[in-house]
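Schema walk-through. Below, the input block comes first and the output block second. Nothing else is stored per chain. Lengths vary across the set, and this one has 159 residues.
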Amino acid sequence: MATETATAANEVSTETGDWKAGVAGGLAGGVVFGLVMTYVIPAPLLGVVIPSMYGLAPPAAPFVGWVIHMAHGAVLGVGFAALVGLKPSIGENTGAALGAGAAYGLAVWVGLAVIVMPIWLSAVGSPANPPLPNVSALSAIGHLAYGAVLGGAYVGLAD
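--- output ---
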C-alpha cells in the first residue's frame, strides 16, 4: 500500500540583491574609475601598483592592471548588491541608489585603498608601496565616482 504526503510549496528566496546588476554596475563603475586613474591620478596605479599586489609588476603591466581592477570592481559590485538586498527599497529609487553607491564607494576607499592596500603592498614587497594610511583626495574622488556609477547602473539594471 502506497502512502502519499502532500506538502505545500513554499518558495523562500535566499537571494539578497541582484548580483548580476551588481556585477554590471561594478564593471561600469570600474571603467569610470579606471579612466580617472589613467588620466587624472599621477601615480602609475594601473600599470604598477595594482599588478604588484599580485606579484605581476614591475615591469609595468597596464593591461594586467586593468583586468585586475575590473575584477575588483565586479566583486565589489556583488558586495553592493548584497547590501542593497538588505534594504530592497534602495534598489528601486534612483536617488537612494546613487547615494548608497557613493557612500559604498567612499567606504571601499577607506577600508581598502586607505588601509588594506598599503599593508598588502608592503607585505608583498612592492616597490610602489604607499604610506599607511594612504589618504589621497583624487583616490577618494575616483572611488566616489565608482560608487555613484555602480549605484546608478544597479538601479537601472536590477530586476
